[in-house]
Amino acid sequence: MSELSPRRVRPPLGLYGRAAAVLVLGWTAGYIDAVGYLELAHVYTSHMTGNTAALGQYLSRAQWPEVLQHAWPILTFVFGLMLGAALTEAGRRRRFHSRLSLVLGLEMILLAVLVIWSAPGSATGAGLWWVGLPALAMGLQTVTITRVGDQRVYSTYITGNLSKFAEALTGYSFWLADCYGQHRRSNRRQRWLREALRHRLLGHALLTGGLWTLFLLGGLSGAERESRLGLAAVWWPIAVLGALIAVDLARPITAVADNEPIAFQS
Predict the structure, then answer these.
(1) Fewest Cβ atoms closer than 10 Å to its Cβ: which of 9, 126, 236, 265?
(2) Largest interatomic CA distance in the chain
(3) pLDDT tens-digit map of 82-141
(4) Residue 232 — φ and ψ, nearest 5°?
(5) Are 77 and 136 in contact (CB under 8 A)?
C-alpha cells in the first residue's frame, strides 16, 4: 500500500497543541454528559462506572426497566469504542494523517441527529432509546486522543484521570523534596527551580488535573445551556467539534508516525 509523500504531509500539531485539543474534548464530554442526563432518561452518557454499578443494583432487584435503562448506554458506548478504534485503524493503514477528523465527524453527525430528530427529554421510552446516540458519540470520542507525549489520557474517563493526577502529584512531591535537599546543599536552588518547572510529572499532573477541571466546566456550562435551550444546547459542542476538525485538517493532531506499526495484525 502506497504511503503519502512527505511533501504532502502537513506538519502535525505540537505537544501543547495536542494537550489543548484533549482538554477541549474533556469540556465536550462534560457538556454532553450533563445535557444527556438532564434531557434523556436521567442516565449519564460517558460515566460507565456509575451505569455499571446501577446495572448491578437493578439486576439484583429484578427491576427490568431500570436494567435496560443502564445497560443500553453501556452497550452503545462500547460499540462506539470499537467503531472509533476501527475508523482510527483504517485511517492509520491508509496513512491518512487527519484521521481524528473521521471520528469527530461521525460524532458530530450523531449529536446533530440527536438534536434534530429526538423526542423531548423525559424518562420515557423515547428518551431511553435516544440516549444511545450521545453514549455512542462519547465512545467514539474516547479513542481519539489517547496519548499526549508519554502520558496516556482519555477525555471521557475522569476516574482514571483523577487517579493519574494523584499519582503524578505524589511522585512530583517526593521528587521536589529529594531534589531540593540535594541542590540546597550545593547552593544551586535556581537550577532546582528550572528543573522543577520542566519535570514531566508536573506536566502529567497539570494535564490530568486540567481534564478534570474542563470536564467540570463542561458539565456546568451544559447544565446552564440546557436550562435555556433544552437539547438544542448540544449545538455548542457540535460547533466546538467542527473547529477541532478544521484544526486537524490543517495540522494533524494525531498524525501517523513513520515507524508506527499497524495494529490488529496477526
Answers:
(1) 265
(2) 70
(3) 999 999 999 989 888 889 999 999 999 999 999 988 655 444 444 678 899 999 999 999
(4) -60, -15
(5) yes
What pTM value is reported for the model?
Answer: 0.87
Q: Which grid coordinates belong to 47?
A: 460515566
pLDDT in tens, 149-175: 888 888 998 998 999 999 999 999 998
C-alpha cell at 176: 521536589
- Supply the DSSP string of 106-166, one letter for each residue: HHHHHHHHHHHHPPPSSSSHHHHHHTHHHHHHHHHHHTTS-EETTEE--SS-HHHHHHHHH
168: left (phi over 0), alpha (psi -120 to 50) or beta: alpha
Question: What is the tally of helices (H) and strands (E) in the chain?
Answer: 10, 2
Cell match 432487584: residue?
61
149, 203 Cβ separation under 8 angstroms: yes
In the chain, helix, strand, coil percent, each to 5? 75, 0, 25
> In degrees rounded to 5, what are phi and psi of residue 44?
-75, 145
Please name the residues in contact with 64: beta carbons below 8 A apart, sequence gap of 6 or more: 58
